[in-house]
Amino acid sequence: MPIWEWLYNNYFHVQTSGWGQIPTKQKVLVVGSHNGGLAAPDMIMMMWEWFHRFGMEQPIYGLMHPSIWKVFPHVAKIVAKTGAIFAHPKMAYMALRSGASVLLYPGGAQDVFRPHHLRNKIYFANSKSFIKLALREKVPIVPVISCGAHDTLYIITDAYDLVNKLHELGMPWLLGIDPIVFPIYIGLPWGLGMGPLPNIPLPIPIHTRVCPPIVFDHYGEKVACDRNYVDQCYELVLSQMQLELDALVRVAKTRIHLPFYK
Length: 262
Known about the structure:
Strand content: 15-25%
Distance between the termini: 25 Å
């Protein structure tokens, strides 16, 4: 994957840390916060880094939204070469049971297209299925965070509520698919973009970090069906990741990057 390596070193100038937190010879559920629109550059860079470090000795699959496979099949095929699979609970369970680790982003489209002023906030859109997955499969959660990727485009707002009202009045969805979000953003190649369209990320430096594994007190089917326990685990992951992201943002702000003047 030479193109990913070039992007990693020369376009995004990725700085990373914490890879020693990945348990050796143990499958894990890697949970991240989505950034940067459909391009999601931090996700691609994270997948490349994983394969660069571990090769096939520690395989990993990343869940990708079903709409990408349907609307942009050619893009999906390219990303599939980095380990992307269809985002569905059955696929996640199958991947873990095969002995591989799984990378997922619980917030999905609502996270990857959150407004720019929320760029340093962990946002999972109250999606808790990943907690149940970890509990049922008895695997630790390894959080991954990034800073900078959500600056590769500037998301002004999400106009989904307005567009949905127009849909209720008779306006059809493009390709018959409910987009879930309808961002208005400034970025390449559109200038002013509207809707969840593919984007070309700006060459903004990205910091990534692998955080310490989170191991819950109890695992199994019984606790996975306990709503209160699932909520507790969810809040634990959310708070831990926010603390880690706050710390990473402080570190990133102390480093001045001038990639165009090297």
